[in-house]
Amino acid sequence: MGKEIRELEPKRVWNKFADLNAVPRPSKKEERVIEFMMDFGKNLGLKTIVDEVGNVIIKKPATKGMEDRKTVILQSHLDMVHQKNNDTEFDFDTQGIQMYVDGDWVRAKGTTLGADNGLGVATIMAILESKDIPHPALEALFTIDEETGMTGAKGLKGGLLEGAILLNLDTEEDDEIDIGCAGGIDVTAKGNYREENSTQDSGAFLISVKGLSGGHSGMEIHKGLGNANKLMNALLVKASDQYNLKIAEINGGGLRNAIPRESTALVTVSGSNVKAFAQDISDWGQAVKKEFFTTDPGLKIAAQPTEMPAKVMEAKAQKSLLQALEAAHNGVFAMSASMEGLVETSNNIARVEVKGGGLKIACLTRSSVEEGKKELASSLQSVFESAGYEVVLSGDYPGWNPNPDSDILKVLQSKYVELFKEQPNVVACHAGLECGILGQNYPEVDMISFGPTILGAHSPDERASISSVQKFWKYTLHILESIPTS
Prior knowledge:
Keywords: Hydrolase. By secondary structure, the protein is an alpha+beta fold.
């Protein structure tokens, strides 16, 4: 398996990616990958530092003849999203990612691949290690915790970097040059509820919604993908009155930046309704499957008889929960009026936990317009507070305002046309890139983002195009050769 990946071209990049993917690197637990990167830089004899929050910076002098060019910051993040299929046995804290080749794609066995942003990291590593690639003076910035709060970028202090140009290698379409991105904020509702004893004449079921496509809650929010938390809530609303359904537990979704793929709910229904309920769930599941056949062909909805829980939610609390989740906006909220096809504002209802008298609802709200972000976050806050929950707004980070007159943009556009004989798409994205945050302490740095084609990021369907990585590598090397003089 490892040998198959290491034989791919460009070998320099894929070998570094294989090395990196052997190191567990979950967000908030980057100690091992930080040590890995520190050892890498020091073994090359390059100036290598780790700042107070854990970002790693490796500096490399310009190659001969390039000393008069502007210093370039090459930037990618070390952490990766950890998601796996429900039936996959895998420990992200101890195991390296198991990769394989599938035609033009590199995939992982039942887990996220880590190409976001591991391929950017691997590319920078290959350049740092090289002895035959022309380049200006380089400052490689490897940030931490991009996926769960961007605390690495937020914690990077001014004065550590001297570069005039920053190349962020974290975009996921190889024909795009990114010049702007959305900001975001976490909206988290927490509450307590009264429980009551379940009745002995009831039947208990474990309802499951699984097999959804999932994906990046920014880059793929416009695709109409099914959200397991919203689908589960719609099912529970539909059945609560008709079958006297009572909720004992809900466990739906996972990471805030991943569209939820799975949800389970432990429920009871009155004894006289047991047979009719099971059939109705099956029928309803088939109808929903037809609705989402194009976007989520693997969707499965089922209700399996299970052991009776001792406690269920009190009726009033259950009604408040279902109404709040029904009213809370999920998906695209507004499209940009200034950039055609760009999602301006959205929300992802990422996580729903209900158990033992406590509940939590976690959302990630994004917008390229600060007022739009505040408006939607405030709307969600009102919905959840009306249900009696405490709402916390946290992890606020800014967007990155596009600069269509950027000098480095002109370089990237001209090199793209020269190499590939077509115009690139100059875009802003709805994902959260670190450029906006980094620009707060480095406002004079000219920033741009690009990368190879990666599909299904933040889901076990994540895959990286081999031919696109070849294109991206060629493009990156030509950009480094074309950096303007100071």
